[in-house]
Design a protein that fits this description.
This protein has 15 helices and 8 strands. The chain has 414 residues and is mostly helical. Strand 1 and strand 2 form a beta hairpin.
């Protein structure tokens, strides 16, 4: 709003601060970050946010603050809102999402694997207390969750970042516990975490490895394509790799009565595969990011078709997926589990559905059903405590919380 009103036009000569294109304004805002704070007589943070953080988080928070200032002025009896989306309540009966997230932050720190000197090394795949080994993917998920919870990398987690970098395979890239070599989906997941921590770092070698390892098998799997595309749209939005990933993800949709949608996989020999809610939701989430950075009519059309179908889905349970790569030495299995409700909530909010919509409300309610109030973590139906599940829950709740607020004193039903 400040830039729209050109409040600093006489003090800063950078014309891009008032450019017609929002992307140009963001870049200029970061370039003039300290000076703009000085003009408002406030101290800036130790370092400006990344472009990603500005676009996905700071802008939403700023607009929320502006909305509250305007509505509170109109109704002075309303104070700072308490976000209410069917989450646990405190003694006063008011929802306490902030307290829950603080509890989750402490719980994740308490499950860190530490070396003999007490230095944190990372997180295990399963957060049950008998877990011992930190893995690269689990550590990447944990760091992404902590960045959302703490809104910055705190000093106590710096050893974890350093150790994550050391977990790379000798030739570069990352792999899961069951994989014999670096794989695109694992490498992309770790790169996404490292990029969120340091947006100035370059990963050209790792991205080259990803491009080289994307074969026909990988290009038929929506999970792999959407995972890799999410990272590439942030690191190299205009690259040939990103363009090919967008095209591949759109190409593997199947035609159903409700339009073109995604199933779990797109092999030619499959017999009448059903559309998958979670895979369609994952694809929609990343395509919404694509549309924000490099809009295209074909992406917009794909999102619109999937949006209408996702709204109608009521079976939003968790699902599993087996990715069985055939290698020269045999089949390499990778078992993936998806937090269906969290992904559906993220997808619906990503495409502009209001949180008051019954489909979003139902998805958020399902997210809370998997929350364990004494462990302060999200748990799978069989008692496992996978770290990625807590990350997915935090992302979905944060997105829906930023999309709407309910002032103190009003119930969820109101």
């Amino acid at each position: 709003v400040s830039l729209g009103l050109e409040l600093s036009a006489d003090s800063i000569s950078d014309a891009d601060l008032y450019a017609d294109d929002l992307a140009d304004r963001r870049v200029a805002l970061l370039a003039n970050w300290d000076r703009l704070h000085e003009l408002r007589s406030v101290s800036p943070a130790p370092r400006p946010p990344t472009l990603r953080s500005l676009r996905l988080h700071r802008e939403a928070e700023a607009l929320h603050a502006l909305a509250m200032a305007l509505t509170t002025a109109a109704r002075p009896e309303l104070t700072e809102p308490t976000i209410a989306l069917r989450r646990p309540v405190g003694q006063s009966g008011q929802p306490i999402l902030l307290q829950v997230l603080q509890d989750v932050s402490r719980a994740l720190r308490g499950r860190l694997i530490r070396d003999s000197a007490g230095q944190p090394q990372g997180w295990p795949h399963d957060l049950r207390r008998q877990s011992e080994a930190a893995t690269p993917l689990a550590t990447a998920y944990g760091l992404k969750a902590m960045l959302l919870l703490d809104e910055q990398l705190t000093p106590d987690l710096i050893p974890v970042v350093l150790n994550l970098r050391e977990m790379a395979r000798p030739g570069g890239g990352y792999a899961t516990r069951t994989q014999s070599a670096a794989r695109p989906e694992a490498t992309a997941t770790v790169l996404d975490a490292l990029h969120r921590i340091d947006s100035t770092a370059t990963f050209d070698n790792e991205l080259s490895l990803i491009a080289a390892d994307l074969g026909d098998f990988e290009r038929r799997r929506p999970f792999i394509l959407s995972t890799v595309l999410e990272t590439c749209i942030e690191l190299q939005p205009d690259s040939e790799l990103t363009t090919s990933l967008i095209d591949d993800l759109l190409a593997i949709r199947r035609s159903y009565d409700r339009g073109l949608l995604w199933s779990e996989k797109a092999e030619q020999s499959l017999i009448s595969p059903a559309p998958s809610t979670v895979h369609t939701a994952r694809a929609v989430c990343v395509l919404a990011q694509v549309q924000a950075v490099r809009p295209a009519a074909k992406v917009h059309e794909a999102i619109d078709q999937a949006r209408e179908w996702l709204i109608s889905q009521h079976d939003i349970g968790n699902v599993g997926e087996l990715i069985d790569r055939e290698l020269d030495e045999g089949v390499e299995p990778l078992y993936i589990r998806h937090f269906g409700a969290a992904w559906l909530a993220k997808a619906l909010v990503s495409v502009g559905l209001p949180v008051s919509h019954p489909a979003v409300s139902a998805a958020v309610s399902r997210v809370w059903r998997s929350y364990h109030p004494t462990e302060f973590l999200w748990t799978w139906i069989n008692g496992d405590v996978p770290i990625w599940m807590t990350l997915d829950a935090i992302e979905s709740l944060r997105m829906t919380a930023l999309a709407t607020t309910i002032p103190t004193g009003l119930s969820t039903e109101s």
